Amino acid sequence: MAFPTQRLRRTRGTAGLRGIVRETELSPNDFIYPIFVAAGEDVKNPIASMPGIFQLSINHAVEEAKKAHSLGIPGVLLFGIPDEKDEAASGAYDPEGVVQLAIRAIKDAVPELLVVADVCLCEYTSHGHCGIVDKERGVVLNDASLELLAQTAASQAEAGADIIAPSDMMDGRVAALRSELDREGFSETPIMAYSAKYASAFYGPFREAADSAPQFGDRRGYQMDPANAREALREVALDVEEGADIVMVKPALPYLDVIRRVRDATNLPVAAYNVSGEYSMLKAAVQNGWLDEERAVLETLTGIKRAGADIIISYHAPDAARWLAR
Ligand code: PBG
Predict the structure, then answer these.
(1) Three-class SS of residue 319?
(2) Which domains does the chain have, with CATH numbers?
(3) pLDDT tens figures, 125-163
(4) Which atom of ligand 1 is nearest to the CA of 214?
């Protein structure tokens, strides 16, 4: 007589058996690779807290984009590090801004690679907040920020961005971007909204990379409380109503339940952002010899996909794609 457990074991005996019953198959095609584009010539600054990741001038960003494409990664996500920051975030919507120039250069060099443009003001404001600030009151001005965010999105679409990804979390930003894009003739350009974006400690290394830590206060006024999951569904529903084409949960690892709930609540594609701090902690353990990098990274990314993500934004993307190709 067979024990019931034998039925489970019967499909685990060989790689072939495991293969045909596997529920989740990770592929390079699932990934989007973030790139930090810096102003200047021939810049390649390592980011101390993110081993293997650099601030890259446009020539190097193009090389990195080509590499991603050759590994079968369908898209890159661009963040800009401008020369100068100011209170109006002028670098964000400058038609000759660092991201706008990088979009043109990458689309010229690798037209088939999708270029996703992050829309936020925090990398361009002198105070590091994601919107325009009323200094006397020390608050972020939602509606004034919307206008500049919409201008930013239009300038990125004009430069050739394939997807516009607002990460600022101002109220009404998806609707504001959609109507500006439509008005400017970009009604075909999709919006990937950072819909459930938590106020997370795991953005720390990114803020080093983008030099965008807020100079006063924090982002809790516009980012979500890690304790809330139902609120994420409300954020997603609002973004869908406003016209989002893809919705995102960010970060990924502490919010796998949220990814699953969003997946079950909408039929739109769901993206998950495996953020800088998630990358850093894994890399740190690997550098100490405490974890096997390939296994830990592939297990992590498989877990994010199994939770329900269709698209995984990850700094591990090129390494993972290389491992998956073997
Ligand atoms: C900008 C933005 C942030 C990240 C993506 N877009 C930082 C923040 O909100 O402070 C974080 C990405 C990462 O940590 O990898 N609003």
Answers:
(1) helix
(2) 26-325 (3.20.20.70)
(3) 999 889 989 888 888 899 999 999 999 999 999 999 999
(4) 10
